[in-house]
Amino acid sequence: MPDLLLELFSEEIPARMQAKAAEDLRRMVTDKLVAEGLVYEGAKAFATPRRLTLTVHGIPARQSDLKEERKGPRVGGPEAAVQGFLKATGLKSLDEAKIQRDPKKGDFYVALIEKPGRATLDVLADMLPVIIRTFPWPKSMRWGERSARSGALSWVRPLHSIVATFGLETEAPDVVKFAVDGIEAGQTTSGHRFMAPAAMEVRRFEDYEAKLLDAKVVLDPQRRKDAILTDASQLAFAQGFELVEDQVLLDEVAGLVEWPVVLMGAFDEEFLSIPGEVIRATIRNNQKCFVVSDPKTGKLTNKFILTANIEASDGGKAIIAGNERVIRARLSDAKFFYESDVKTKLENRLPKFDGIVFHEKLGTQGERIKRIEIAAVEMAQFAKADTEKAKRAAHLAKADLLTEMVGEFPELQGLMGKYYALAQGEDASVAAASEEHYKPQGPNDRVPIDPVSIAVALADKIDTLVGFWAIDEKPTGSKDPYALRRAALGVIRIAIERGIDLYPRGLLEKHIKRVRADLSDGAISEIGDSFQRFFEDRLTVQLRDQGARHDLVEAVVGLGGKEVGLLSVVRRVEALGRFLDSDDGKNLLAGTKRAANILRIEEKKDGKAYDGAPDAALYSLDEEKTLAKAIGRVKTEAGAAVGREDFAAAMSAMAKLRPAVDAFFDKVKVNDDDAKVRENRLKLLNEIRAATRAVADFSKIQD
């Protein structure tokens, strides 16, 4: 079957837009093909700095003919209905319709409509201009004389040409005939801007890709990335160095070149006196270059690797020299910033925070730092950290935000605080907390290890969460302007990975008065309910992402309306999962669910809950007495085990219910003829439900 080749050739497409643009082009074209009844075999899109390309193979040469039966009015129906039917179906008269018999509803007219399929070439000629005109660039422009006209094309950069061919692999393809803003589709493109700018005619994708390669254009972004990474690694290795890999930078650089040429430059060794992260940020941000390290020490060397877009006649000497000049100037600035910053102690910068508003309803940055200090002392108890170090670390943790270096490179916040703290002689744990208190900043980021860092990280995130909850600035739908979901997940990960059992609602109630002293106890309780549910939702998402069964999580989270500590939830879920894998667990689950189902049916029928204590005097069967005693023992043992956070022991205690529950259902008729006995037995069933809820809500567990 025929293939489609489409290229949209323009001026420079920003690297950050290329991947999404390629995917948008693939999606828009293939969705429209399917909507037109043209099911294809495969499609792939590519992007370079100057072109978007799409190949779709295995497209039918034409649409299938459409045959449709359309039901009309009843025979003998109103004339208006008949005329509307004829107009809608294109029939000249009722003689062209057939009559369908229906003994119950009466006979009615049916039109058989046959619509011949169109040639795919014509379908493409209609759909492609619309896709090009409606392409969803984040930013676009109009240009030239045509830009003043109504309906002028808006594109990311000036669009120069369009290639659109369609045909069989064994035949010369047809050009899809259409034009957009005066640019007619054809089969002519250009190669590399400098090394092969001449126009060239292409036929289909294989021919197109091969000719581009000859014309110094690597079409596939992944192939460009692989080439850059391989060549850069080999160039560094040949000099006895090691490339410091950077996937984000690699993605960006591959979007800046069509023909990657890797070169190595150098800078003065004196700049190695500043932190390696500063050197890397300076070179990366200003010149999009990679840095190089010494494999023996792991420290940066005074070399860098750049990616040019041309094979220069001088072997790249002028390109290297130009990059070296810029990098030397930028590193000089960075060295000046660093040396200037070190001269001012971190605590001497803090008074400026009193004049910087954190949020109009939450006060200044200075007020926030004081709150974090108080919270850090409290969190130090959980993290087993030195309280004085935790307070000092919280005091200094934000100070580097006011330094020249962080002003120039915001991504170095925290890290520079650590370097400046060490330079002024602070304790290593205090210094580390400047960097680590921001962690984790995402699912792939590590959590703090040092107890002081843990305390400050928790304090910082809890202050943010409690503060914005107190002023009713909670996340809504997909909107989370203050990154509160990320902060909550950070608290959860720290709690789980560092073995700290935090109770979110308790934390809110303890800290909220520092932000809103005017809140009543009732208002705090209501806010606490919302805060707890928010954390339960985040914890549920986290555990599901880690592979936990969703029903087990739901059975433990928010158990009976009582808040359970974050770490306790995890341990309960793990213990519950192991218990339910055993025969005792499976059978007890079945018995508990049976009890719950009977209770639900009878309570609904009777219009009341059977939640009072059963009367032991009404027990007439041994199985009732045995079950009652077993429940009493289990409540005591399981409750004590839960109290000491020994959930494995709690499950072992629960297992002791199984024989008594099995015997009860084998021998006892719950809905006894005697109303009092029936009620008492239903209350006994409720005792089973209550006993198991000491550990989990078994009604939420799937069989």
Identify the CATH class of the largest domain: Mainly Alpha
The average pLDDT score comes to 93
In the residues, how many domains can be counted? 5
Task: Report, as a whole number of angstroms, the end-to-end distance.
Answer: 50 Å
Sheet with the most strands?
7 strands, mixed
Structural class: alpha+beta
Helix tally equals: 25
| Helix content percent band | 40-55%
Annotation, overall tally of beta strands: 18
- C-alpha geometry: flat
Secondary-structure arrangement, i.e. CATH architecture of the largest domain: Orthogonal Bundle
User: What is the CATH third-level topology name of the largest domain?
Assistant: Hypothetical protein af1432
Question: Cα-atom Rg, whole angstroms?
Answer: 36 Å
Low-confidence stretches: none
- Tell me the β content: 5-15%
How are the SSEs ordered, and which strands pair?
Blueprint: E1 3-10, H1 15-35, E2 42-47, E3 51-57, E4 66-74, H2 79-89, E5 98-100, E6 108-115, H3 120-133, E7 159-167, E8 174-175, E9 179-180, E10 183-186, E11 188-190, E12 199-201, H4 205-214, H5 221-238, E13 242-243, H6 247-254, E14 261-266, H7 276-287, E15 290-293, E16 300-308, H8 317-342, H9 346-349, E17 357-359, E18 363-364, H10 365-383, H11 387-396, H12 404-408, H13 415-423, H14 428-436, H15 451-470, H16 484-497, H17 504-511, H18 521-545, H19 550-556, H20 566-580, H21 583-606, H22 622-643, H23 647-655, H24 657-667, H25 675-692
Parallel strand pairs: 7-10
Antiparallel strand pairs: 1-3, 1-7, 2-3, 4-6, 5-6, 7-8, 9-10, 11-12, 13-15, 14-16, 15-16, 17-18
